[in-house]
Automatic annotation (TrEMBL):
Transmembrane segments: none
Classification via Pfam families: FAD_binding_3, Rng_hyd_C
Molecular function in Gene Ontology: oxidoreductase activity, acting on paired donors, with incorporation or reduction of molecular oxygen, NAD(P)H as one donor, and incorporation of one atom of oxygen
Designated name of the protein: FAD/NAD(P)-binding oxidoreductase family protein
The keyword Membrane is annotated on this UniProt entry: no
InterPro entries given in the database record: FAD-bd, FAD/NAD-bd_sf, RIFMO-like
Gene3D superfamilies associated with the record: 3.40.30.120, D-Amino Acid Oxidase, subunit A, domain 2, FAD/NAD(P)-binding domain
UniProt domain FAD-binding: residue ranges: 46-417
Amino acid sequence: MGVSWFSRRFHGAYTVRTRNPPIPCFQRRLLSGSNSKINGGDSVLPVLIIGAGPVGLVLSILLTKLGVKCAVLEKNKALSKHPQAHFINNRSMEVFRKLNGLADEIMRSQPPVEFWRKFIYCTSLTGPILGSVDHMQPQDFDRIVSPVSVAHFSQYKLTRLLIKQLENIGFRIGSEELSPDDVRLEEHEVLMGHECTSINTNDHGVTVTASFLREGKYMEKDFQCDFLIGTDGAGSTVRKLMAIDMSGEKDLQKLISVHFMSQDLGQYLINERPGMLFFIFNTEAIGVLVAHDLKQGEFVLQVPFYPPQQKLEDFSFKMCERLIFKLVGRELADIDVMDVKPWVMHAEVAESFLSCNNRIILAGDAAHRFPPAGGFGMNTGIQDAHNLAWKLASVINGIAPPSILSTYEMERTQIANFNTALSLQNFKAAMAVPAALGLDPAIANAVHKTINNTVGSILPSELQRVFLDGIFSLGRAQLSDSLLNENNPLGSRRLAKLRQIFEEGKSLQLQFPAEDLGFRYHKGALVSDGDSLSSAPETPTGHRRDYIPSTDPGSRLPHMNIRLLSKLSSRELFSTLDLVSSDNVEFLLVIAPIEESYVLARAAFKVAEELKVPLKVSVMWPEQTVEGISRSDTALSPWKNIVDAVEVKRSPSSPSWWDLCRMTDRGAILVRPDEHIAWRAKSGNHE
C-alpha cells in the first residue's frame, strides 16, 4: 500500500548525503537512524535562527506553532525601515493565512488594489505616458484557485506584523545583554545587536559565537544549539563561514536605492496615474520608481550605479532630491529623503543548502539571490521556511530521522533554480523597454566595463567620471522630444516597437500564477505514482500562465471551498487547505465516503499508529448528498482524528472535488504538513 510505503520511508529510510564539509562536523548517535527526540538538554537550544528578516521571523513562528523551541539572533540593533520587497504572492499569503490571521491583517493594511495594479512607462511622472500594463485580471480577485489574493505590502511593515505575532506568542524582542557566564539563549527570544562571527561543531552540537557592543567595547559570547538556520540575507555570514559558494550570474547590475516620502507626489499619482512601478526615461535622468504606498506618499527610487567613477557619497540627500525632481518633472514641496543604499543584483543559488550533517541550514536570500523582477526573492524564502519547519519539527520531536532534512535541499533547490531562471528572464524583459528606446542597458554596462579596463588605469577619477557622464548624456539624448515622436521616422519605429512589446506581454511581468501556486517538487519527500513524475520539470517561459490545479505528487493541494459536517448549520466556508493542521506535524489522507476508501483509511491509521506518525483522515462528501450525510466515525472506529467535509461548488456546472483533482472518487490523496502532496492513488488501486 502506497501510504504504508511512504510512512515507513518518511519514518527512517531516507539516505543521508555524504559531504566534505569545510569545517569539522560532529557525528551524533542520532544520525545513525534513531528517532530519539532532540531536546538539547537544559543548556542547548534546539533551533537557533540567524537573521530577523521576514524568512527568519516566519520560520520562528512556524516552529513555535509546531512546538519547537527556537530563538533568533540579529546583528542590527534595530529592524530596517527601508521598504525593500513589497509584492506578496498567492502561496506566501496562503502560508500567512495560518499565522493567526496575518493574511487578513495584510489585506486590511495594504493600499487599495486600484493604486498598484499597473506598471507605467513615461518620460516623467508629469509628462507623456509611453505605455502602461495592468497586471491584475478578473480571476485574480475571484478566489477560485486560492482562498486569498496577492498583496502589495512593504517588507518593513510585514516585519512589524511578524514581530507583533511573535510577541503575542510569548517572544521577547530586545538587545539586553546576557551575563558573561550564560551560554544559553532563552527560547522565545529575538536578540538584537548580536552578530554571528564564528560557527563550530563538536559532539555536543553547534556552537555559535556572537559579537555585541557593551559599554563601547565589542564582546563575544557563545551559544549552543542543535540546529543552526541561516536566514541572514544575500550577504549571509552563515553561508560564508560554511564556505558555501554561489553559482549563477553575479553582478548583473549595481543600483542606488533612495527611500523618500512625499504626500504631494502620492496624491498627484492617485489622481492622475496610480501604479506600483513607474519606469521613467528622459534626457536628464533614468530611473524606476516603486510606489510602496501612494496614500502615505512612500516611495523608493532605483537608479543605475557605476562605481568607481560614481561614489556613494555623490548621492547626498540634496543630490537625490534634484534627481527625483528631474524624474517627476517638477519640484515637490514636501520631499523627505529618508535613506540611500547601494545594492547589487545577482541571479545565484547556493551550491548547498545544508552543511555539517544537515545541522547547519540555509534559507531565503542566504540560499538564493534573485533579480527583484517578479518578486520571487522574499516569497521563495517564505516558502523555504514553510518546507523546512515541519521537517525540523519532525526530527526534533522524534517523528523522523535527521536524514529527512536532505529532502529540504532536494526540493527547494529545484524551486530556487527555476525561480532564478524565471527572475532572470523577467529582468531581461524589463530591459527590453529601454532597449527599444535606444537605451540598451547591456551597452551601458559594456561601456562602463570598457572604461574600467582601459582609461580607468590612466585617467584621474574625476576625468573618468566626466567621460562616463558625457557618454550617458549622449545616450539619453535618444529620448529628446525632437527624436522620440511619431513624426520622426526613427522615433516612430521605436514607439511602434514599444507598443508591440506591451501588446505581446513581453515587458516586465508581476504575476506568475502557474509558478506561484503550481510549483511542484519532482523528487524529495514524496512517492511517485508512475503517472506524472517521469516528465522533466518545465522550463520557465517568462510569460504569465494560468494555474491549473494538480494532484501530482509534489504539488500543492488544490483549493476548493468546503463546509465541515460538524458546522453545517453555521454555513461557514473553509478551504481544503484548512484541513491541513498548522499546529502540529500531521499528515492528511483525503478520501471519498466509500467502503474501499474506508478500508484504506483504517490501514493507514494502523500504520501511522505503529510508526507514531500523526495522521488525520478527511472524508470528502459530494455537495448533493448533504441531506443524507452520516458521520464517518463509525466506519473508521476506533480512530477519532476524522473530519467530514462537504464540497461547495461555485455553480452547478463547476467541477466536483474529484473532477478538480482529475481523479475518480475511488482515489486517495496523502498530504504533507506543508500542504504538498506526498502520495496519491488516482483510482481504486491503492498499491
